[in-house]
Amino acid sequence: MSVHHTIKRYNKIISILRRRPMSYEEVQNEIARDADAAEYNLLTSQRTFQRDIKNIGTIYEIEIESNKSTNQYYIKDDVEDLHSRRLRENFEIVNAIRLSKGFGESLIFEERRSLGTGHMAGLIHAIQNRLTVKFEYHKFWDESISKRTVNPVALKESRNRWYLIARDEDTVKNFALDRIKNLAISEHKFSPVDYNVHEEFDNCFGIINGTNEEAEKVVLSFTPQEGRYVESLPLHHSQQLVLKNVKEIRFSYFIRPTYDFRMELLSYGNQVKVLEPESLKKTIKTQLKQALKNYN
Q: I need a labelling partner for 221 at 20 to 30 A (CA). Which of 73, 151, 211, 273 fits?
């Protein structure tokens, strides 16, 4: 059996048991409903299933145990890291795309320009080996083109785009991959860049950082309908539920109120209200008033 088949079987077992505890027979019945069950031979003996559970614990750090009284399997400890989860999710997306071939109405994508992901492999190689890279950069704001020679630090995802974080002369900057052209990886090695990406972006929303805004407590009040959506898909990792009733759902954050965060708040229209801090409330009110003037 191929590695592809095995990974698919592991992913299927994880997704099934994340729903609820199930017996071996119930898991097999759920797997049998998969369109690929017959092609990939995903159904297994109980002995193979036991081996799969051990491998899932080792590879994904997801501990699955059985309840002897009910003969059901359940996920006891789920400490799967972000990288592993994203790999599993992307594997399922790729498999869904493969399944949808010839069925154009079953999988609908958004129309959008290339994300520049073709640069990712080369940039990861440059980051890991500390190699300087050169490219042409087409700016978002004015469509000007500049030639850059930078020391790459990391790749970061933000709102369905990927960005290169790199030292450009004496400053660390962000470059959207879809704006990079004619990428070339040199053989010139550079010294390690003293820049902790996780710390720098910890209190940021999106990709904007290095600005004058300091992280502060932000409290937002959403309508119940929109609040339930935000509760299921948090705006920021610091999101904490403060209040939930039939009139509103309120969250608190510790975040820098940067431009991209303010634009996100404005996108919710009348479904959100800034309660704290007062400075952010005034800024949003001013921008809403300016937006209304466009319709006068």
A: 211
